[in-house]
Design brief:
Helices cover about 70% and strands about 0% of the residues. By secondary structure, it is mainly alpha-helical.
Length: about 230
């Protein structure tokens, strides 16, 4: 994305720009314009306005956790609307205010406790997902900033790739093991598509025409193995 945006699907690229709080102009200035040690561009103010990288990404982590919570509220709550047991629970919850004893469970207020337990579970899931989404951006970018400034004084592509990989891996610790598998299955085809685009644009290959089918097959194979 930073060095060669052409290899990324346009819709996915716009999504990353929007949630990454970046612009194409920033990427071009920082990563796509040839530079040397004598013309090294500092992170601030081109990449971020805060002089401290740590301060900028720490603040951004908390802000984006709150911002992304709206998206993940939909992700985690919509599935409840297609589950009949959820509506049964709502019915029992309403009836618990009419009847002092839950007829099914034979214990007072069991529907209220069950619904509260479910909402707490969903709240934790939303928080974990939001922290992951904010973390995989800001952890990777913070590491990228530190490495480019303290080690390289330039922007080699392996620093960008390595920083994003390490940052994403750390961020996934916020999620459950099942969700980490789901994220991997989602990201794997996107990564393969980027690789195929890069190879195709540089060398040209006939296999590119069949790449979507190959990706689907590989994703199903990995999914079957992990599950």
């Amino acid at each position: 994305m930073c060095h060669y945006p052409a290899i990324i699907d346009k819709g996915y690229y716009k999504f990353l720009l929007k949630w990454g709080n970046n612009t194409p102009q920033q990427l071009k200035s920082m990563f796509q314009t040839p530079s040397s040690s004598s013309s090294f561009i500092p992170c601030s103010p081109t990449w971020h306005k805060e002089k401290s990288c740590f301060k900028h990404y720490t603040k951004g982590f908390f802000i984006d956790t709150i911002k992304s919570s709206t998206m993940y509220t939909i992700v985690h709550l919509i599935p409840l609307l297609i589950q009949m047991r959820f509506y049964k629970l709502i019915f029992r919850f309403i009836m618990s205010f009419i009847n002092t004893v839950d007829d099914k469970e034979k214990t007072p207020n069991s529907a209220r406790k069950e619904l509260l337990k479910l909402m707490i579970k969903k709240f934790k899931a939303i928080l974990r997902s939001s922290m992951f989404f904010a973390g995989f951006q800001h952890f990777g970018k913070l590491l990228m900033c530190w490495m480019r400034y303290y080690c390289f004084k330039s922007d080699p592509i392996y620093n960008t790739v390595g920083s994003v990989f390490v940052g994403s891996s750390i961020a996934q610790l916020f999620e459950t093991s099942n969700r980490r598998i789901q994220y991997s299955l989602y990201l794997f085809p996107e990564i393969l598509k980027m690789i195929s685009n890069a190879v195709h644009f540089k060398h040209g290959t006939k296999i590119y025409e069949w790449w979507d089918i190959i990706m689907i097959q590989l994703s199903f194979a990995i999914w079957s193995y992990l599950v």
